[in-house]
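Work package 3, deliverable 3.1, input record:
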Amino acid sequence: MAELNETTGIPIPTIKYYIREGLVAPGRPTGRNQADYTEEHVRRLKLVRALVEYGGLSIAVIRDLIAQVDNPELEAFDLLAAAQKTVTQAKDPRPGPYKDGAERRLHDLLAKRGWRIRTGDPAYRTAVGVLAALDEVGRQDMLDVLDDYAEAAERIAEIDLGLIGDVRDRDRAVEIVVIGTSVGDTLVATLRRLAQATVGERLYT
Amino acid sequence: MAELNETTGIPIPTIKYYIREGLVAPGRPTGRNQADYTEEHVRRLKLVRALVEYGGLSIAVIRDLIAQVDNPELEAFDLLAAAQKTVTQAKDPRPGPYKDGAERRLHDLLAKRGWRIRTGDPAYRTAVGVLAALDEVGRQDMLDVLDDYAEAAERIAEIDLGLIGDVRDRDRAVEIVVIGTSVGDTLVATLRRLAQATVGERLYT
């Protein structure tokens, strides 16, 4: 375990915590207070750290994801869909006129762009909530350019999907979806901020 | 306060908590256990709720933002920059080869796109961390298409900046930056997921 700590830089108490929470498999015992760890342990530790630090995922969500990967009943396609849903935590909007308006607006957008409407999806429910919240705080200007944002998001989705094209390994495919979605959100958000500084100067100076 | 609760749907204990934490001004006392609240209180309550629910901001960060708005020493431009920095919580990368590689990669990207390099910025530091984490978990494929992601992010920044063009009111400008950045991240992330479902079908079925 001292070696694991040295290789990954993750503190030993954190490694123990990850093992206890079922995020990382225990090592193969080789004696009292001794265990063997493999490259697979190092890989998994680094993955969990990246998801916590830059993916914004909670330990509970990561545990759910790992349970899905370790469930042999799930076919690859269903596994990917399940992983995607787990990473996307839904926030349901409050019922009321803002919600109704947001739902209509989202339907129009999805129809216009030819996107699938799946009202039960966490992303769908969160989208309704975000649109309702923007309306409620008086940001109709953002709603007016919703289609522009959607077009940029579609471009990002194309880049995302281009990357999982020829992955054959089931576990690796899930890793790619999970990292791509969660850490990918942080990547896009961060690039957006870096771009804002420059675009702002171009436009206003 | 019962009326505030009725208008906004925010539970009274939550309203009291926001007032106690300095996020919302107290009402004008009109008697024992009675106070007057204005439209401004309703507006502010809805703003705080949107930032908590869909902007992913903590109470402490929102308190910092409000302190900046209420600081008359800050000029509008500095206020916007300060607000933007406060919304962007930096996560510094660990020193080491992954960090060094990420920094080189980010410099190349910024130079290629003509984006400003401000190494102290929270967004810059987080970008280095995200790139290092992606490298460390074996997602070089995402790094290979970094420029594509950056191009899409630049498009989003152009949409963002187009919206604050003719806002003259100082407080309203901050509101726009704060909502646009924090709730905007959730909007983009959510649209990305909705698009992925459709793009995935187009590509793979």
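Residues 85-204 of chain B form one domain.
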